[in-house]
What does this fold into?
Amino acid sequence: MKVMVCLKQVPHQDARLEVRADGSWIQEDNIKFEINSYDSYALEEALQIKDAGGADVEVVVVTIGPDRATQALRTALGMGADRAVHINDDATEGSDALGIAKILAAVAKEENPELIFCGLMAEDGNFAAVPPMLAELVDMPSATGVLSTANNGVMRVERELEGGAIEVVDLPKPCLLTVQTGANQVRYASLKGIMQAKKKPVDTKTAADLGVADQVGAANAKATVNKIYVPPKADTAEILEGGTDEIVGQLVGKIRELGLL
It folds into this structure.
Protein backbone atom coordinates (compact mmCIF):
# COMPACT_ATOMS: atom_id res chain seq x y z
CA MET A 1 0.00 0.00 0.00
CA LYS A 2 1.24 3.47 -0.85
CA VAL A 3 0.50 6.43 1.42
CA MET A 4 1.12 9.99 0.24
CA VAL A 5 1.62 12.74 2.79
CA CYS A 6 1.42 16.42 1.81
CA LEU A 7 3.77 18.66 3.79
CA LYS A 8 4.29 22.40 3.88
CA GLN A 9 7.25 24.26 5.33
CA VAL A 10 6.14 27.29 7.35
CA PRO A 11 7.92 29.90 9.52
CA HIS A 12 9.01 28.54 12.90
CA GLN A 13 6.50 29.29 15.63
CA ASP A 14 9.08 31.39 17.47
CA ALA A 15 10.21 33.31 14.39
CA ARG A 16 9.93 37.09 14.55
CA LEU A 17 7.91 38.01 11.50
CA GLU A 18 8.14 41.33 9.69
CA VAL A 19 6.09 42.48 6.71
CA ARG A 20 7.83 43.33 3.45
CA ALA A 21 7.96 47.00 2.54
CA ASP A 22 5.44 46.49 -0.27
CA GLY A 23 3.05 44.55 2.00
CA SER A 24 3.05 41.55 -0.34
CA TRP A 25 4.18 38.99 2.25
CA ILE A 26 6.49 38.54 5.20
CA GLN A 27 10.27 38.94 5.15
CA GLU A 28 11.54 35.37 4.74
CA ASP A 29 15.27 36.10 4.98
CA ASN A 30 17.03 35.01 8.16
CA ILE A 31 14.07 33.26 9.77
CA LYS A 32 13.79 29.58 10.64
CA PHE A 33 11.29 27.28 8.97
CA GLU A 34 9.75 24.00 10.07
CA ILE A 35 7.15 21.45 9.02
CA ASN A 36 3.63 22.78 9.50
CA SER A 37 2.50 21.25 12.80
CA TYR A 38 -0.80 19.95 11.41
CA ASP A 39 1.22 18.15 8.71
CA SER A 40 3.45 16.59 11.36
CA TYR A 41 0.40 14.88 12.84
CA ALA A 42 -0.64 13.74 9.36
CA LEU A 43 2.83 12.29 8.78
CA GLU A 44 2.77 10.49 12.12
CA GLU A 45 -0.59 8.94 11.25
CA ALA A 46 0.90 7.63 7.99
CA LEU A 47 4.01 6.32 9.75
CA GLN A 48 1.87 4.42 12.24
CA ILE A 49 0.19 2.66 9.32
CA LYS A 50 3.67 1.86 7.99
CA ASP A 51 4.71 0.53 11.40
CA ALA A 52 1.73 -1.83 11.36
CA GLY A 53 2.15 -2.89 7.73
CA GLY A 54 5.93 -3.12 7.52
CA ALA A 55 7.48 -3.55 4.10
CA ASP A 56 4.04 -3.67 2.48
CA VAL A 57 3.52 0.06 3.16
CA GLU A 58 5.42 2.85 1.40
CA VAL A 59 5.16 6.43 2.68
CA VAL A 60 5.87 9.16 0.13
CA VAL A 61 6.11 12.78 1.33
CA VAL A 62 5.44 15.66 -1.04
CA THR A 63 6.10 19.38 -0.71
CA ILE A 64 6.03 22.49 -2.88
CA GLY A 65 8.60 25.18 -2.21
CA PRO A 66 12.09 26.60 -2.80
CA ASP A 67 15.41 24.92 -2.01
CA ARG A 68 14.96 25.38 1.75
CA ALA A 69 11.90 23.10 1.69
CA THR A 70 14.24 20.14 1.16
CA GLN A 71 14.96 20.32 4.89
CA ALA A 72 11.31 19.56 5.68
CA LEU A 73 11.48 16.52 3.42
CA ARG A 74 14.73 15.31 4.98
CA THR A 75 13.17 15.63 8.42
CA ALA A 76 10.21 13.54 7.29
CA LEU A 77 12.54 10.94 5.77
CA GLY A 78 14.46 10.87 9.04
CA MET A 79 11.22 10.16 10.88
CA GLY A 80 10.59 7.12 8.70
CA ALA A 81 9.11 8.13 5.34
CA ASP A 82 10.53 6.12 2.42
CA ARG A 83 11.02 8.74 -0.28
CA ALA A 84 10.10 12.30 -1.19
CA VAL A 85 8.88 14.43 -4.08
CA HIS A 86 9.88 18.10 -4.13
CA ILE A 87 8.14 20.48 -6.53
CA ASN A 88 10.77 23.20 -6.74
CA ASP A 89 9.80 25.69 -9.41
CA ASP A 90 9.57 29.49 -9.44
CA ALA A 91 6.57 29.10 -11.75
CA THR A 92 4.50 27.87 -8.79
CA GLU A 93 5.01 31.07 -6.77
CA GLY A 94 1.82 33.02 -6.21
CA SER A 95 -0.38 29.96 -6.69
CA ASP A 96 -3.67 30.10 -4.82
CA ALA A 97 -5.21 27.12 -3.00
CA LEU A 98 -6.63 25.71 -6.22
CA GLY A 99 -3.27 26.00 -7.94
CA ILE A 100 -1.54 24.17 -5.09
CA ALA A 101 -4.24 21.48 -5.17
CA LYS A 102 -3.70 21.02 -8.92
CA ILE A 103 0.02 20.49 -8.40
CA LEU A 104 -0.55 17.93 -5.64
CA ALA A 105 -3.25 16.24 -7.72
CA ALA A 106 -0.79 15.84 -10.58
CA VAL A 107 1.67 14.17 -8.18
CA ALA A 108 -1.08 11.95 -6.79
CA LYS A 109 -2.08 10.82 -10.27
CA GLU A 110 1.52 9.77 -10.92
CA GLU A 111 1.91 8.07 -7.54
CA ASN A 112 -1.57 6.49 -7.36
CA PRO A 113 -1.65 6.25 -3.54
CA GLU A 114 -4.27 4.33 -1.63
CA LEU A 115 -4.30 6.96 1.10
CA ILE A 116 -3.49 10.67 1.11
CA PHE A 117 -2.84 12.41 4.43
CA CYS A 118 -2.80 16.19 4.84
CA GLY A 119 -2.76 18.49 7.82
CA LEU A 120 -6.07 20.18 8.58
CA MET A 121 -4.66 23.56 7.52
CA ALA A 122 -1.41 25.47 7.06
CA GLU A 123 -0.38 27.66 9.96
CA ASP A 124 0.66 30.53 7.71
CA GLY A 125 -2.59 30.68 5.74
CA ASN A 126 -5.25 28.98 7.89
CA PHE A 127 -7.53 28.48 4.88
CA ALA A 128 -7.97 24.67 5.15
CA ALA A 129 -8.88 24.82 1.46
CA VAL A 130 -6.24 22.75 -0.35
CA PRO A 131 -7.07 19.22 0.95
CA PRO A 132 -10.80 19.25 0.01
CA MET A 133 -9.90 20.66 -3.43
CA LEU A 134 -7.24 17.97 -3.84
CA ALA A 135 -9.75 15.26 -2.91
CA GLU A 136 -12.16 16.57 -5.54
CA LEU A 137 -9.47 16.73 -8.24
CA VAL A 138 -8.39 13.13 -7.66
CA ASP A 139 -11.98 11.94 -7.13
CA MET A 140 -11.45 10.57 -3.61
CA PRO A 141 -13.85 10.62 -0.66
CA SER A 142 -12.43 12.68 2.18
CA ALA A 143 -12.82 13.54 5.83
CA THR A 144 -11.50 16.60 7.64
CA GLY A 145 -10.53 17.24 11.26
CA VAL A 146 -9.53 13.60 11.81
CA LEU A 147 -8.50 12.66 15.34
CA SER A 148 -7.98 8.91 14.91
CA THR A 149 -7.91 6.30 12.17
CA ALA A 150 -8.41 2.55 11.91
CA ASN A 151 -7.29 0.78 8.74
CA ASN A 152 -9.49 -2.29 8.36
CA GLY A 153 -10.54 -2.69 4.74
CA VAL A 154 -12.13 0.73 4.97
CA MET A 155 -10.76 3.72 6.84
CA ARG A 156 -12.77 4.30 9.99
CA VAL A 157 -12.05 7.76 11.33
CA GLU A 158 -13.14 9.88 14.22
CA ARG A 159 -13.43 13.52 13.24
CA GLU A 160 -13.99 16.61 15.33
CA LEU A 161 -17.05 18.74 14.63
CA GLU A 162 -17.75 22.30 15.72
CA GLY A 163 -18.59 22.44 19.39
CA GLY A 164 -16.37 19.45 20.20
CA ALA A 165 -18.71 16.69 19.03
CA ILE A 166 -17.10 13.57 17.54
CA GLU A 167 -18.35 11.91 14.37
CA VAL A 168 -17.35 8.38 13.26
CA VAL A 169 -17.10 7.90 9.49
CA ASP A 170 -16.19 4.91 7.31
CA LEU A 171 -14.51 5.79 4.03
CA PRO A 172 -13.71 3.38 1.19
CA LYS A 173 -10.14 3.43 -0.09
CA PRO A 174 -8.58 5.24 -1.80
CA CYS A 175 -9.43 8.30 0.30
CA LEU A 176 -7.98 11.53 1.65
CA LEU A 177 -7.85 12.51 5.31
CA THR A 178 -6.90 15.82 6.94
CA VAL A 179 -5.54 15.39 10.44
CA GLN A 180 -6.18 17.62 13.43
CA THR A 181 -3.49 18.62 15.94
CA GLY A 182 -3.34 16.31 18.95
CA ALA A 183 -4.42 13.26 16.95
CA ASN A 184 -1.29 11.39 18.02
CA GLN A 185 2.15 11.77 19.58
CA VAL A 186 4.51 12.89 16.84
CA ARG A 187 7.84 11.03 16.89
CA TYR A 188 11.25 12.63 16.56
CA ALA A 189 13.74 11.76 13.87
CA SER A 190 16.34 9.48 15.46
CA LEU A 191 20.06 9.83 14.76
CA LYS A 192 19.90 6.56 12.83
CA GLY A 193 16.89 7.84 10.89
CA ILE A 194 18.66 11.10 10.05
CA MET A 195 21.67 9.20 8.72
CA GLN A 196 19.45 6.89 6.67
CA ALA A 197 17.51 9.87 5.30
CA LYS A 198 20.64 11.04 3.46
CA LYS A 199 20.41 7.94 1.26
CA LYS A 200 16.68 8.09 0.60
CA PRO A 201 15.58 9.50 -2.77
CA VAL A 202 14.19 13.00 -3.21
CA ASP A 203 12.68 13.41 -6.67
CA THR A 204 12.67 17.06 -7.76
CA LYS A 205 10.00 18.10 -10.27
CA THR A 206 8.72 21.25 -11.94
CA ALA A 207 5.18 22.28 -12.81
CA ALA A 208 6.03 21.53 -16.44
CA ASP A 209 7.12 17.99 -15.50
CA LEU A 210 3.67 17.49 -13.99
CA GLY A 211 1.84 19.05 -16.94
CA VAL A 212 0.29 21.89 -14.94
CA ALA A 213 2.58 24.83 -15.78
CA ASP A 214 -0.26 26.66 -17.54
CA GLN A 215 -2.64 26.20 -14.58
CA VAL A 216 -0.62 27.46 -11.62
CA GLY A 217 1.31 30.50 -10.46
CA ALA A 218 0.23 34.07 -9.82
CA ALA A 219 -1.03 34.58 -13.38
CA ASN A 220 -3.58 31.78 -12.96
CA ALA A 221 -4.61 32.48 -9.37
CA LYS A 222 -8.31 33.13 -8.86
CA ALA A 223 -7.70 34.41 -5.32
CA THR A 224 -4.88 36.81 -4.52
CA VAL A 225 -3.51 38.52 -1.43
CA ASN A 226 -3.61 42.27 -1.99
CA LYS A 227 -1.77 43.26 1.15
CA ILE A 228 -0.81 42.06 4.59
CA TYR A 229 -0.15 44.38 7.52
CA VAL A 230 0.06 44.53 11.28
CA PRO A 231 -3.36 45.58 12.65
CA PRO A 232 -3.14 49.13 13.98
CA LYS A 233 -3.53 49.62 17.70
CA ALA A 234 -6.54 51.63 18.85
CA ASP A 235 -5.67 55.09 20.15
CA THR A 236 -8.16 55.08 22.99
CA ALA A 237 -10.39 52.79 24.97
CA GLU A 238 -13.72 53.82 26.49
CA ILE A 239 -14.35 52.63 30.03
CA LEU A 240 -17.97 51.93 30.93
CA GLU A 241 -18.88 52.72 34.52
CA GLY A 242 -21.83 52.02 36.76
CA GLY A 243 -23.65 48.97 38.06
CA THR A 244 -23.80 45.68 36.14
CA ASP A 245 -27.19 46.37 34.54
CA GLU A 246 -26.13 49.90 33.61
CA ILE A 247 -22.87 48.72 32.02
CA VAL A 248 -24.69 46.01 30.07
CA GLY A 249 -27.16 48.58 28.77
CA GLN A 250 -24.36 50.92 27.70
CA LEU A 251 -22.48 48.06 26.00
CA VAL A 252 -25.55 46.96 24.05
CA GLY A 253 -26.09 50.55 22.99
CA LYS A 254 -22.49 50.83 21.73
CA ILE A 255 -22.82 47.60 19.79
CA ARG A 256 -26.00 48.88 18.16
CA GLU A 257 -24.29 52.12 17.24
CA LEU A 258 -21.61 50.13 15.44
CA GLY A 259 -24.24 48.16 13.54
CA LEU A 260 -23.14 44.86 15.07
CA LEU A 261 -26.50 44.02 16.63
Notes: The CA atoms of residues 97 and 130 lie 5 Å apart.
